[in-house]
Design goal:
Layout: H1 10-23, H2 27-44, H3 49-60, H4 77-94, H5 96-99, H6 110-127, H7 134-153, H8 169-172
Helix pairs in contact: 1-2, 4-6, 6-7
Length: 173
C-alpha cells in the first residue's frame, strides 16, 4: 500500500469531509475509498474515459442517455419496482447481518432505493463474473459495511423491519 497526496479546492474538501462524516470514517479513508471506487468503475467500462465523453456529448446534443438499470425508468415503473423488491429480498437473505436494520418501508426513501438498486446491480455483475478484479468484491463488501452502519445510525428502535415477502401494492401500483 502506498501513500499519495492530492490537492483539493475548498469545496471539494468540504464535500469530502461531509461524506466522511456521513460514512463515520476518517477523511483519509473516505478519500481512498472514493479514489478506489472511481478507478474500479472506469476499469470496468471497456471504453474508460471515452465512454464518459460519449455520454457527455450525448447530453450536450440534447440526446438523453438511457438510465442505469438501478434507477427507476419512467415507462416501466411496476416491472422495475417488482424486480428491485426481489433484488432487495435476495440481498437481505444473502447478507442478513447487513439488512437486520433495514426498515420495512425502505422504498419510501428515494436515496435508499437508489443505493439498494445499485448494490443489487453490482452484486449481479460480480456474480456474472463481469469483474475479474477481486478488489471489486472487497469493495462491494466495504459498501455493505457502510450501508449497515448507515442503517444502524438511522434506525428507529420502534420501526418495523424488512422481512421480505411480496411487495406492497401501494409501491408497485
Amino acid at each position: 500500500m502506498s501513500r499519495v497526496a492530492i490537492t483539493l479546492d475548498e469545496h471539494a474538501l468540504a464535500e469530502l469531509g461531509r461524506r466522511a462524516r456521513a460514512a463515520g470514517e476518517p477523511v483519509a479513508r473516505a478519500a481512498a475509498r472514493l479514489v478506489r471506487d472511481g478507478l474500479l468503475s472506469t476499469q470496468a467500462r471497456a471504453g474508460g474515459e471515452q465512454a464518459a465523453l460519449t455520454a457527455e456529448a450525448q447530453l450536450a446534443e440534447g440526446v438523453s442517455a438511457p438510465l442505469p438499470g438501478w434507477l427507476e425508468p419512467q415507462g416501466e415503473r411496476q416491472r422495475w419496482r417488482r424486480e428491485l423488491w426481489s433484488t432487495v429480498c435476495a440481498l437481505a437473505e444473502r447478507y442478513p447481518r447487513t439488512f437486520t436494520q433495514l426498515v420495512a418501508d425502505w422504498w419510501r426513501d428515494r436515496a435508499l432505493v437508489e443505493v439498494l438498486g445499485a448494490l443489487g446491480a453490482w452484486r449481479s455483475q460480480l456474480d456474472a463474473g463481469q469483474s475479474p478484479d477481486p478488489r471489486a468484491e472487497l469493495l462491494f463488501h466495504d459498501r455493505l459495511e457502510l450501508l449497515a452502519r448507515q442503517l444502524t445510525l438511522a434506525a428507529d428502535a420502534t420501526a418495523a423491519r424488512f422481512s421480505g415477502g411480496p411487495p406492497p401494492s401501494d409501491w408497485t401500483a
